[in-house]
Amino acid sequence: MPPSNSSLYHSTESELFQAWEIVTYAKAVFLNVDLLRSMEDMVREGCDTHVACLYEEGLTRVQAESWLKSFNQGRFMQMSRLNPQVTDDVLEKRLMRTVRELSLGDAHVQLPPLLSRLAEMFLCEGSDGSIRVRTRLLEPWQALILVVPPLLVTSAWIAKQLKWSGHSPFDYQDRKGAIFRFQRWLSDSTLPLDDDPFLDHLCRTQGLDETHLHLNGTTEAEKVWCDALVSPQKVVGGLTYKTLEREFGLHVAIGNGVDRLLRQEDYELQPTTLMLRVEVAATLKALLLRCAVEGAATQGIQEIVMSAQGALSKAREMCLPHSTRRLGTVVTEAWQLVTLLTSFNNRTLSDHLGYVFWHYALIRAQFCRLLVQQAQHKGFDQFQYITLNELREATEQDYAERFRQIERGHQQVVDFLEGRFAPKNHPDKTAALIGKILRGYLKFLSEDEDGQVSSEQGSSQYGSLSDLIERVQELERGRSEVPQSIRRLRLGLVPHFIKQTTYSERVSFFSNNDVRPFCRDVRLRRETDHSARALIALLQRTRGLEGLIRGIDAASNERHAGPEVFAPVFRRMRAAGIRRFTYHVGEDFAHLASGLRAISEAVMYLGLDAGCRIGHGTAAGVSPKKWWGSVQGYVVLPLEERLDDLVFAWDTMVNARIHIESITLIEAEIRSLTMRIWQNPTLTPDVLSMAWKLRTLDPLAKETGSSDVDPNRRNEALRYAEARDRHPEAHAQFLLRHGIGATTQQLQRCQEEIVVFRKDDVLSPKVLRGLQQAILKRLADCTIAIETLPTSNVRISIHEGYDEHHASNWLGLGKHPMKSSVAIVIGSDNPGIFATGLRQEYAHLLRVLRGRAKDLGDPLLSEALIQRMCTDAKRFRF
Asked: How far apart are CA 366 and CA 262, in angstroms?
C-alpha cells in the first residue's frame, strides 16, 4: 500500500532534518582549526626533518590522545559557533546523537565513512550517467560545499559505485570504461547538478543563456587546489609576496582586506603559513597515494621526505591508468581520491593513516574556503577580498578549462555565454587579453564533449586577433572544409569598466582647498575614458571584433563610484556603435533608498533603453521591513547621501503621483539638510532635483573647447553649455558639488554623518515599497531586464537562505509580491567564488518557486515562470 500524502510529507521533512544534521556535523569537523594546529604542533615537536616522518610508524599513545582531545574540543567549539543560540548541554546531546546515527567509529578513521554517508544522503546518478544532487536536498548541499570540498564527497560516491578491490584500481578490468564513466559522472566540474527532470528538458531542448558571468572568478576552488599542490609557489606566491603590500581595504583604519579574510578563517593564518600548509599537503597526499598503491606505509618515506613534489608526481603516475585520452583536472583528481577512499574502505590502508587523511583534508578544505564566500561573510567587501587574494591568478591563465566547466561535457547546459572581462588602457593590451580568451575558446571548440581534440585548432599560427576571430567563427558556424564544432556553447564578450575609488584623492577633495582635484572621481573618470578610447581603437582596427563585443558593463563595488562617473564613457561607446548596455547596481547600499536611487541613476545617466539590463537590482526586490531588521533599525550616512536619497524620493513620488501625503515631510527634511550643508535658503527641491539629474554631465567638459579634435569631447562640451544656459541655478549647484566655487567647509559638511532610525525615517517601509514599484514600472516601460543572481545575492545581500530571495517578489510569488511585468533573467555572477553554476541557479530558484506555487494551489506556475525567464534570457542576451 503506497504511503499517504501526509506520511510522504513527514518522510520528506525527516530526510531534510537528517540532511541538515549531517551537514552541521560535517561543517564542524572540517572547520576544526584547533585540530589542524595540534597536528602542526606535533610535527614541530616530534620531527625536525619533515611532516611525513611523524606518520611513519603511527602516532604515539600520547600524541594520539592529544589528537583526540583536539578533535573533540575543536569540533564542539565549531558546533557552538554554528549554533550560537543553543546551550552546551543541548549541543552535546545533539552531537553524540549524530555520531551514533552515522556510525562513524573512532575519530581518526571516521573521515572516509563520513564522506560516504554524505554521498549516500545527497547524491544519485542521473539518467545521463552524471552524478546528481537530489533536488529536494539542494539547499543543505549548497551549505555543505561552502565548507567541505565537494569532490571529496563525489569521490566517495564513485568509490561505492566502482567497488574496486585489492590495493589499487589496477584490478579493475576495463580501464577505458572506467575513464569513460568518470568523465560522464563528473562532466568537467567538481559541482554536480540537481536531478530535476524539468530542468533537464529545458537544458536539452533550449539551453540556458548566461547573461551575467565574469570570466575571472569562474574557476572552481578545487581546480585551483590541484594546481596549488603541483606549483605552490606559483599559486600561493602572489598572495605571499604581492597582495598584502598592495591592497589596503576600504579604509586604512581597518587594515588590509585580504589579511582580514585570512584571519576570519584562522586567526593565526598568514600567507607564509598557507604556503607551508599547501606544501605539507602535497607531502601527505604523496604519502597516502604511495601507501595505497604499494600497500605499505613505510615504503618510500625517505623519497617523500627528500622531494614532496617529485614523490607526488610519481605517486600520481603509479595511481592513474595509462591512457591516450585527456583525463582532465577533475577526472585526474577524482581518480586519486577514489584510490585513497577505496583503500580505506577495503582496509588496505592502515588505520593510523587516517590521521594523515584528516590532516590533508583539513588543509584542503581551508584552502578552498579562501576561494569561496562563506555564508557568514556578508556584503560586497567580503566578496572583493576573495577577488583580491590572487589565489586564482595562475589557474585562470587557462581559459579553455573555464569553458569546459561551463559546458559540462556531454550535459551541454549553456547555449550562449556572455563572458565579462576588464578592458586595458592600451589597445594592444586589450588585444592580448582577448586573444588569450579566444585561444582558450578555440581550443575548447576543437574538442569533443570528453575534451579530446576532434579538429586541428592551430591557434598558435594565427598571429593577429582578426585571424583568431575568423578561425573561431569557422568552428562556430562550420564550412565545407571546416566542420562545425560539436560544442554547444557559443561565446560573446562584454567588457566591463571597474568602479573604484582613490582614498588619497577623496581625502584631498573634501579637506584641501589648495590642491583639491578638479572634480569628484577625476582620476577614475580619466582612466575609464582612456580605457574606453583604447577599446574603441581596437574595435576600429580589428576585423570581426564588433560581432564578438556584445555590450558594455561597469562592475565592482558600487559604493566606490556611482553611475554618473560612467555616463560620458557609455555615451562614447554608444557613439562607437555599441547598442547594448548593462550596469551592476542596487546590490550593496547603506540605505535601501540609496540602492533604489542608484538604479534610477543608472537608467537616467547612462541612457539605458530597450534591450538593456540592470545587474542585480537587489534594492528593488527586498522587503523594506526585512532590510531594516538586517541593519538593526538604523544606518549611518553622510549628509549629502541622505539629501540625495530624499531628493530622489521626492522627484519620483511627485512624478509618479504616489504617497502624496508623505511629500511635505520629505520636503521639510530636504530644506533642513540643504541649509545645514549649503546654507542657501533659495535651494528648493525643484532646483536640487534638476541638479541631481544634471549629474549625467561630464564636469571635465568645463574646460573643453568647441575646437577639440575629439568629437565626443565636443559633444560633451555642448551638453554642458546647454545645461548651463537652460538651468543656471541647477547647473551652479552641480558645479558646487564638484567643488567648483565651494568652500572647504561646505564640502566637509557634505561628509558629516547623520544617523537615520527606522522609527523616525520619513522614508517609511510603505514609501520605500512605493519607490520600488515605481522603479520596476520604469524598467518595464523601458523594456529593461534585471539580471538576478540567486547565490550571489544570498551571499552578499541580507537573505539568510534561498527561500527569502527577492526574485519571487518580482515574479508575484513572494511574501511581498510586486505588480510588475519587468523581465527577469538569471546569471551565476562568479560561479567559482559562489560555488555554483547557471543550471544550479535555475534549480535554486525553481525549488523556491515550486514551494510558493503549491501554497497558491497552482503547482505548474513555477515551471511556467522558469520557462519565461529562460526565454527572456534569449530575448535580452546581447
From this structure: 10
The dihedral through the CA atoms of 164, 169, 175, 181 has a sign that is positive
Q: Which amino acid is at 564?
A: E
Q: Which residues contact 157 (CB under 8 A, 6 or more apart)?
A: 116, 119, 120, 123, 131
- Cβ-Cβ contacts under 8 Å for 397 (sequence gap 6 or more): 436
Are 843 and 135 in contact by the 8 Å Cβ rule? The answer is yes
Residue-wise pLDDT for 488-538, tens only, equals 999 999 999 999 988 889 889 998 767 889 999 999 999 999 999 999 999
- How far is it, in rounded angstroms, from Cα 207 to Cα 532? 33
Cα dihedral 286, 291, 294, 296, rounded to 10, equals 140
Domain boundaries, the chain: 15-194+220-388, 395-494, 499-788
Nearest to 498 by CA among 548, 572, 561: 561
Q: What is the pLDDT of residue 239?
A: 85
> What confidence score (pLDDT) does residue 8 get?
41
Distance separating alpha carbons of residues 256 and 254, to the nearest angstrom: 7
State which amino acid sits at residue 65: E
Phi, psi of 249, rounded to the nearest 5 degrees: 75, -175
Q: Report the C-alpha gap between 496 and 260 in whole angstroms.
A: 27
CB 656 within 8 A of CB 776: no
Q: Where are the alpha helices (DSSP H) in 583-684?
A: 592-606, 624-630, 639-656, 660-677
Beta strands in 343-475 (DSSP E): 414-421
Whether the Cβ atoms of residue 776 and residue 603 lie closer than 8 Å to each other: no
- pLDDT tens-place string over residues 5-24: 444 444 578 899 999 999 99
Query: Reduced to 3 states, what is the DSSP secondary structure of residue 386?
Result: helix
> What are the angstrom distances between the C-alpha of 342 and each of 166, 170, 288, 318, 461?
9, 12, 12, 15, 45
pTM score, two decimals?
A: 0.94
- Name beta bridge partners: 555: 498
Rounded to whole angstroms, how far apart are CA atoms 473 and 711?
Answer: 33
Give the C-alpha separation, 371 to 256, whole Å.
17
The residues facing 492 across adjacent strands are 418
| Residues 6 or more apart whose Cβ sits within 8 Å of residue 524 | 499, 500, 501, 502, 561, 565
Residue type, position 90, single letter: V
User: Which one-letter DSSP state was computed for residue 758?
Assistant: G
CB 814 within 8 A of CB 852: yes
Question: What's the CA gap between 550 and 546, in Å, rounded?
Answer: 7
Amino acid, res. 447: E
Cα torsion 846, 851, 853, 854: sign: positive
| CA 697, 698, 700, 703 torsion-angle sign | negative
Rg (the chain; Cα; Å) = 29
Q: What is the mean pLDDT for each group of 10 consecutive residues in the chain (878 residues)?
A: 42 87 97 94 68 72 91 95 92 91 88 96 96 97 98 97 62 70 96 98 97 97 96 89 62 75 93 94 91 63 52 68 76 94 90 93 98 94 92 94 97 97 97 97 92 66 87 88 91 97 88 84 96 98 96 94 97 97 96 98 98 97 96 96 98 96 97 96 96 97 83 94 96 96 94 96 97 97 97 94 94 85 96 98 97 91 97 97
Distance of CA 647 to the CA centre of its chain: 33
Q: Which 8-state DSSP code applies to residue 2?
A: P
| Cβ pair 373, 383 in contact under 8 A | yes
590/588 Cα distance (integer angstroms): 7
Alpha carbon distance 111, 108 (integer Å): 7
Q: In what order do the strands lie in the sheet with 123-125?
A: 123-125, 131-133, 193-194
Residue corresponding to grid cell 510588475: 820
DSSP 755: E
DSSP character at residue 135: G
Question: Which DSSP symbol is given to 243?
Answer: I
The C-alpha cell of 612 is what? 538593456
